[in-house]
Amino acid sequence: MGKPKVVLGVSGGIAAYKACELLRRLTESGHEVRVVPTAASLNFVGEATWSALSGNPASTAVWESVHEVPHVRIGQSADLVVVAPATADMLAKAAHGLADDLLTNTLLTARCPVVFAPAMHTEMWEHPATQENVATLRRRGAVVIEPAVGRLTGKDTGKGRLPDPEEIFEVCRHVLRRGAPSGATAGPDLAGRHVVVSAGGTREPLDPVRFLGNRSSGKQGYALARTAVARGARVTLVAANTALADPAGVDVVRVGTALQLREAVREAAAGADAVVMAAAVADFRPAEYASGKIKKKDGEEPAPVALVRNPDVLAEISASRAGEGRIVVGFAAETDDVLANGRAKLRRKGCDLLVVNEVGEAKTFGSEENEAVVLGSDGTETHVPHGPKEVLADVIWDQVVARLPARRA
Ligand code: CTP
Q1: How far is the CA of 312 from the centre of ligand 1 (A)?
Q2: Can you point out the beta strands (E) in 142-298?
Q3: 281 lines ligand 1 (CB under 6 A)
Q4: Is the dihedral of CA 394, 400, 405, 409 positive or negative?
């Protein structure tokens, strides 16, 4: 099998320079990349940069190098087209099927998955014209990554930033791996869905410098968020004390304690299609919070720490969704009697799916890999062998998709 063929479309925004890094990531990881810049984008990054980094000519016009590569062939033979940055103008052209340069022609001839990574000023992103164009592209099966919030050109800040190239690369990798068809007939299976994922581990403060915490890194939850974006979902990630980069296209809500996580998950879950509780939530918190640092005293034993129960967020979310068709997924970290404990926990928590994994000193926490059994309340049992956390994430989404009620027309 040859290298996967990727077309990197670059439209004319200042964020075009970030596409150089995306290109580098793609070529270094074994993809054959053809860069198709718009004429306007060459004001930001020149043709020489694209051809040097990709090892392929980078043309903007339909009539260049016709004898070598007919313009239709670039789109037809691609395994993935990614447009980064995608300007408001490019989204409009793509939504309306205009074909006045090589990139827009390529978009019309491509029958592979298409990913757009928009970048523009907040006002342009929020304009109904842009939003309708984005909705059109998504309806047709494209993955349009939500822009990040942050510093824009000049002094402006807001939604409209191109996500980090590393994270756009992750979306491309997931989309390529699944090879989901895009185009008029089929699209990513979570398109039009809103999913909420909690990740990380809560910290329950004892005093201003100490807390009760756990060893969850958040990697499984982040893998769930990334794969959901690649499958077309709108994703809210409630992240408790993680040190990981924000995944592209994900609305990240940062929390510290179990009570904060509960508030954030509840708020995001209203109207959502699925909630996946991958976070390790502390079952107990200190009954008292010392506003000053607790000091040791010579000759005195330390005072015992009294604990109180935290609410069970998963059980609450499961119980409070009557008739709303929301799919709720829990995780169970077990050290003994893994399956029996998992089945009992599934019943106790009232969720639809429970992902059971065995934990221990050397297992799961902080690692890139995971091994689990996904139990369904309908009796299903899916064993996922040891492998990358994103593979487990995809199995979980497969199970969610299979249970989602049909969309209202
Ligand atoms: N969970 C939650 N709220 C809590 C504790 C846990 O929402 N206060 C969720 C976790 O996000 C996870 C699931 O419940 O999805 C299972 O958590 P786990 O700690 O394995 O189970 P516990 O209910 O704490 O049971 P036990 O202490 O018996 O292991």
Answers
A1: 7
A2: 143-144, 148-151, 157-161, 194-200, 204-207, 210-212, 234-240, 250-255, 274-277, 284-286
A3: yes
A4: negative
Catalytic-labelled residue, pool 56, 105, 133, 214: 214
214 assigned to active site: yes
The residue whose C-alpha atom lies closest to atom 24 belonging to ligand 1 is 283
Cα separation of 73 and 327, whole Å?
Answer: 42
Pocket test residue of 314, 328, 338, 396 for ligand 1, highest count of atoms within 8 A of CB: 314
Distance, CA of 162 to CA of 216 (rounded, Å): 29
Kindly report the protein residue whose alpha carbon is nearest to atom 20 of ligand 1. 332
Query: Could you tell me the pLDDT band of residue 179, with boundaries at 50, 70 and 90?
Result: confident
- Range 281-309 average pLDDT: 94
Residues 357, 372: Cα–Cα separation, whole Å: 5
Report the distance separating Cα 347 and Cα 281, nearest Å.
19
- Please give the helix or strand (H or E) that residue 375 lies within, else none: strand 369-376
Cα of 61 to ligand 1 centre, how many Å?
57
Tally of CB atoms within 10 A around 146: 18
Which structural domains are found in the chain, ordered by start?
5-178 (3.40.50.1950), 194-403 (3.40.50.10300)
Handedness of CA 179, 185, 188, 189 (dihedral sign): negative
- Kindly state if the Cβ of 237 falls inside 6 Å of ligand 1: no
Rounded CA gap, 402 and 409, in Å?
18
Rounded CA-CA distance 197/188 in Å is 18
Angle (CA) 181-186-187 rounded to 5° is: 70
Instruction: Please report which confidence band the pLDDT of residue 180 belongs to, taking 50, 70 and 90 as the band edges.
Output: low
pLDDT digits (tens, 9 = 90+) for 84-127: 999 999 999 999 999 999 999 999 999 999 999 999 999 999 99
Atom of ligand 1 nearest to the CA of 316: 7
Helix (H) or strand (E) holding 172: helix 165-178
CB atoms within 10 A of CB 292: 8
Question: With a 6 A CB cut-off, is 342 part of the ligand 1 pocket?
Answer: no
